[in-house]
Amino acid sequence: MIDSQKLKTLLSIYKEAGVDEVTSPVTHNRFQEIEDTLVLPLPSLEEKKVPSIAPLVSPKTAHGAASVSAQSAQNLEELKAALLAFEGCALKYTATNLVFGDGNPKARVMLIGEAPGADEDRQGLPFVGQSGQLLDKMLATIGLTREIFYITNIIPWRPPGNRQPTPAEAEACLPFVKRHIDLVSPDFLILVGGTATKTLLGGRDGIMRLRGAWKDYTSEAGKKMKVMAIFHPAYLLRSPGQKREVWLDLIKIKHSLIEAKVELRRSL
Ligand code: URA
Description:
By secondary structure, the protein is an alpha/beta fold. The protein contains 11 helices and 6 strands. The protein has helices spanning 4-16, 30-39, 59-72, 76-85, 118-123, 130-140, 167-184, 194-201, 207-210, 233-238, 243-259, and strands at 102-103, 109-113, 149-153, 188-192, 215-218, 224-230. The protein has a 6-stranded mixed sheet, sandwiched between helices. Helix 3 (59-72) runs antiparallel to helix 4 (76-85) and helix 3 packs parallel to helix 7 (167-184). The longest helix has 18 residues, at 167-184. The N and C termini lie far apart (57 Å). The relative contact order is 0.13. The structure holds uracil. Uracil binds at residues 113-117, 120, 126-127, 129, 131-132, 153, 234.
């Protein structure tokens, strides 16, 4: 009989390591499963899901492989297939689903966030959890809905325990994000939060300084677009006092979109 204190300690160790989801009502002995697959005639990977281990890939190699793979994608389906086959980001091995993108693939407005959380990982769609719902509400106030904009993340796999992605993980996935931008080819890019801002704009300034002002951005393929950083909705949930700033940024975005004749829904 395990005493409850030991059980509590064990659960907190799991939680700190990012194991914070129950994915099966029964326990699995993975070592036994591996042994079973070794004594039976070897099935193909499609027939039997063998627990997989992330290969060790250096950040430089990962970035190089990502660049080649992303550049070869000629449309969003091919880009998604390239990401599914990509081995350079270990987060793939702890995530349930690839979270690729959502919304209008021909949008003139594209949003880029940080990385999926637990709800996004479960559903395979970006920004569907609590912070996504807040973001949708904020955007709806200026007439932007998912029929009008397109949304993705810097990292397409959930980091365990919702930790911030490391710079190496962001670097490994960056060629895919850049190709994603070129395949959607928007006129306006909105970077949601510090990680997307730092990863795509580089430089020393953080979100506090950069938010709320349009900047020029030239995509990998040479298309010129306007880019603005806004606070991440998860930050607004923690610091509701900052909602005033985001509201001012949204008004600025709305004016620019109207000026550029982007079709908007009537505000709610
Ligand atoms: N936060 C993000 O940055 N992206 C998501 O998809 C969900 C939460």
